[in-house]
Design a protein that fits this description.
single chain, 309 residues, alpha/beta, five-stranded mixed beta sheet, 10 helices
Length: 309
Amino acid sequence: MLFISAIVYDDKCMELQQMRYAIAVAEERNFTRAAARCHVVQSALSHQIKVLERELGVTLFARTSRRVDLTDAGAAFIPAARAALEAADRAGAVAAAAAGEIRGTLSIGVIPTVTALDLSAVLAALHARHPHVRITMRAGDSRRFIAEIRAGELDAAVLGLPATVSPAGTDHLVLAEERHVAVLGPGHCLGGRRRLSLADIANETYVDFPVGSPGREQTDRAFAAAGLARTVAFEVMTAEMILDLVSADLAIALLPPAVVPAGRGLTTVAVTSGPTRTEYLAWSDFNPSPAALAFVEEVRSVVGTHGPR
């Protein structure tokens, strides 16, 4: 019986490996690159793909000497294979956590203007405490991150949202609540003011994040609430580019004060009734992974928060 169980276990491991190979080929669109990514010789990877296709009774990839494409059957198979591998990895991580070891993959989304958290320090501490957790991180948009957390495609994210909006459908911590300041270039005539109103700066030329993005939404809402319009001549994706354009006196911006570094010659001025935002850490409210919970606890230990808000 033990011998039969070992054979079944080995077969299941091979099936998972075959799925990993198939996913690599699908993503790389090339057998050579897929083999290098999986740290196997190409002939072994190609053989296992053929075995998998034979067992499934379908062709997953259309191949020529120059091109590899998914067939219709392959396009249907790959998402299911990803889900199966994620479930297998999750099962292993949960079992390890029950024995006191946190492992698995932690995927994190980060907005371009994180101010409430030294994320690199938090991740370094997490890695030191749980070295078997594989951490991945990508930048992006708060709304997309919320949707991905709900869909189980992302473990956690640092978000920035207008003060009246919360990341519904997730567990979350409030990291900071901030009022934006006007960021002015070195030669700007309003740089000597102690406080400005939105009316004072409505006719300025602005640089901001793209229209419709959460990074811009709070500013658009503030001007709309005041019955004012403004001109956004420059739409960019990063806070660094915003600051570069302000430094060149091409535009002004409204940003959280912690985003603006010292030593660049920029001036920040408080704005009456200016835009506000709340920075959150959000994670799944449905069966979060052990690695995600370990990350949340690491953040809590830094910000001193002891429960979801």
